[in-house]
Inverse folding.
C-alpha cells in the first residue's frame, strides 16, 4: 500500500467514523482499566490489602467490572493469589506482556515471545480474555514492527486493548510513596483532591478532543494502574465522574465503540492513545498529550497542594 493510498484510506475511515457517530449516543461513558497487575506492593498497602480494598470499593460503588492488564513475570505465589481475587470478583484479566517490555527497545521477534509467554501463564485465570495492551502504549516504532505485531494479534484472536484517556497516575503514586518513606506529613484528603483533579483534567481534555474530531463523546477507556492510590481513591473518582455526568461501563462495552476498528497509518514512537492517534491523523500536531502529563507539573502541584503540616496519615 502506497503512502498516498494509505492517506486516503485513513481519511475515509475518519469520515465514516464521524458520519456514523455524529449522534449524541454513548455520551460520556467510561470504562476503568488497571495496568501492571500484580504491581509491586511495598508501601502503604501490601498486595493482598490493595486487592481487597480495590475489590471492596468497586463493589460498594457498583462498578461491576474493570480490567487488569497483567505482567506474568510477577506471578509468584502472592501475585497469583492477587489476580485470582480479581478474577473471582468478576473482573477481567488480560495480557500486558511477560516482562512489561518496551517495544521500542526490542525486535519484533523478542517482543512477540514476551507476549506469547504471558499468554501461556495468564490462561490459568478463569476470567482471562484475549486482550492485549502495549506497555507504555508503544505499538511499534517501525513499519515492520507495527504491522508484524498487528498480524500476530489478529492471527491469535487478540484485541488491541487501546486506551482513550491517558494520565500519569503512576508518577503521582511515586510521589506519594516517596513522601511516606521520607517521613513527610501527608493529608490524605489533599492527596485525594490532587489525584481527582489531575485525572479529571485529563479526562475532560481527551473527551473534548474526541468531540472535536469525531463529533461525539465515544465510549472511553481510562488508563489507570494497579497501585495504592488507586485503591485509596477509586471510589472518590467514581463519585466525581458520576457527579459530572459520566456513566461507568464495562471494558467489554467500551470496546464495542466504532473507534475500536480504527487503525492509524502513522508510526508513533510514543503513543498518546486512540483519541490522540485520530487527532494527529486529522492534522492536529499539539496537545495530543494533556499538560498534566508532565512530571514537573505533577511534582510542583503535589508539593503545593498535598504536603501539609496539618493532617497526617492515620
Amino acid at each position: 500500500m502506497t503512502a498516498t493510498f494509505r492517506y486516503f484510506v485513513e481519511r475515509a475511515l475518519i469520515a465514516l467514523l464521524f458520519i456514523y457517530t455524529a449522534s449524541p449516543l454513548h455520551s460520556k461513558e467510561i470504562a476503568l482499566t488497571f495496568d501492571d497487575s500484580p504491581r509491586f506492593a511495598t508501601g502503604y498497602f501490601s498486595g493482598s490489602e490493595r486487592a481487597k480494598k480495590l475489590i471492596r470499593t468497586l463493589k460498594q460503588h457498583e462498578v461491576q467490572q474493570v480490567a487488569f492488564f497483567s505482567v506474568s513475570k510477577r506471578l509468584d505465589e502472592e501475585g497469583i493469589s492477587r489476580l485470582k481475587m480479581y478474577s473471582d470478583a468478576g473482573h477481567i484479566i488480560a495480557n500486558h506482556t511477560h516482562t512489561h517490555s518496551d517495544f521500542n527497545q526490542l525486535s519484533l521477534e523478542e517482543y512477540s515471545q514476551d507476549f506469547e509467554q504471558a499468554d501461556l501463564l495468564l490462561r490459568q485465570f478463569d476470567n482471562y480474555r484475549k486482550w492485549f495492551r502495549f506497555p507504555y502504549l508503544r505499538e511499534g516504532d517501525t513499519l515492520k514492527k507495527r504491522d508484524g505485531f498487528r498480524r500476530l494479534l489478529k492471527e491469535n484472536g487478540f484485541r488491541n486493548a487501546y486506551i482513550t484517556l491517558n494520565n500519569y497516575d503512576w508518577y503521582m503514586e511515586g510521589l506519594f510513596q516517596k513522601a511516606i518513606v521520607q517521613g513527610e506529613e501527608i493529608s490524605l484528603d489533599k492527596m485525594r483532591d490532587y489525584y481527582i483533579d489531575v485525572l479529571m483534567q485529563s479526562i475532560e481534555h481527551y473527551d473534548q478532543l474526541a468531540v472535536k474530531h469525531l463529533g461525539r463523546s465515544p465510549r472511553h477507556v481510562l488508563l489507570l494502574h494497579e497501585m495504592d492510590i488507586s485503591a485509596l481513591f477509586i471510589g472518590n473518582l467514581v463519585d466525581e465522574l458520576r457527579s459530572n455526568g459520566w456513566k461507568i461501563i464495562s471494558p467489554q462495552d467500551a470496546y464495542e465503540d466504532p473507534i475500536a476498528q480504527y487503525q492509524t497509518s502513522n508510526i508513533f514512537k510514543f503513543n498518546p492513545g486512540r483519541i490522540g492517534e485520530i487527532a494527529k491523523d486529522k492534522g492536529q500536531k499539539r496537545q495530543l498529550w494533556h499538560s498534566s502529563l508532565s512530571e514537573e507539573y505533577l511534582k510542583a502541584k503535589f508539593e503545593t497542594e498535598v504536603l501539609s503540616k496539618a493532617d497526617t496519615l492515620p
Q: What stands out?
A: The CA atoms of residues 165 and 206 lie 6 Å apart.
